[in-house]
From TrEMBL:
Entry-linked InterPro entries: NO2/SO3_Rdtase_4Fe4S_dom, NO2/SO3_Rdtase_4Fe4S_sf
Gene3D superfamilies: Sulfite Reductase Hemoprotein, domain 1
Domain of life per record: Bacteria
Protein name per the record: Nitrite and sulphite reductase 4Fe-4S region
Coiled-coil parts of chain: none
Residues in Nitrite/sulphite reductase 4Fe-4S domain copies: 93-206
Keyword Metal-binding belongs to the record: yes
Keyword check for Iron-sulfur: yes
Keywords of this entry: Iron, Iron-sulfur, Metal-binding
GO molecular function, one term: heme binding
Length: 213
């Protein structure tokens, strides 16, 4: 019996990342008795189940409104705040566009990308590999956070005063740079230190004002 793993998330909304009861019921009914379900620090559930049943299970999970993503060394779905200031003021549409654009790309090590709709930062964005923080009608971007270990690191500011339409090209540029220049299993925080923040600023400068499509 071959087992494979994938990730499931309900996405996010005002109030946070929330599963509906019927979604959990579907999840429990389709993955099988031998499946293992793990809560991760990425606000995703990892599902490990029989490979031959996985395609149909994923179809039913998507039909229930859940997102299905690869597990492992990929960019994770966006880790967003609770949008306590409201969907419009906190930029819920911008966060959803980011989530759709950046999730599931293969990378040298798992990449956590955070979003906060204001400076309160309830999603702890500065502990993420890449973070976007909405500051009134502009956005600041940070890189290199590290939440684990005795020497946890806060992310450093990469760019300030970005427009909403600059965010997707900028993060896609960072992902591409990490894909091309990152070492296997290298943490993104170490990658930032090795490449240097100033070099990353130069390498991503052309991404500003590029179309997000």
């Amino acid at each position: 019996m071959s087992m494979r793993k994938f990730a499931v998330t309900p996405g996010f909304e005002v109030g946070g990342t929330m599963f509906r009861p019927e979604q959990l019921a579907v999840l429990g009914s389709v993955v099988g008795e031998d499946a293992r379900i793990e809560m991760t620090g990425f606000k995703q559930l990892y599902i490990e189940m029989e490979e031959e049943q996985m395609e149909e299970a994923q179809r039913l999970l998507r039909a229930a409104g859940l997102q299905v993503h690869p597990a492992g060394f990929v960019t994770k779905s966006l880790i967003a705040c609770h949008f306590c200031r409201g969907a419009e003021e906190a930029g819920l549409d911008v966060a959803r566009a980011l989530d759709e654009a950046i999730t599931g790309h293969p990378v040298p090590s798992p990449l956590r990308i955070g979003y906060a709709g204001c400076a309160l930062g309830t999603s702890e964005p500065l502990l993420k590999d890449i973070a976007v923080i909405k500051m009134r009608d502009k956005y600041d971007m940070y890189v290199g956070g590290e939440p684990r270990g005795l020497k946890a690191l806060l992310a450093k500011q990469l760019h300030a005063g970005l427009e909403a339409e600059e965010l997707v090209p900028m993060i896609r540029s960072l992902i591409a740079i990490f894909q091309e220049q990152g070492k296997k299993k290298e943490k993104f925080s170490r990658f930032v230190d090795r490449i240097t923040l100033e070099q990353l600023r130069k390498l991503t400068a052309n991404a500003r004002m590029e179309p997000a499509g």
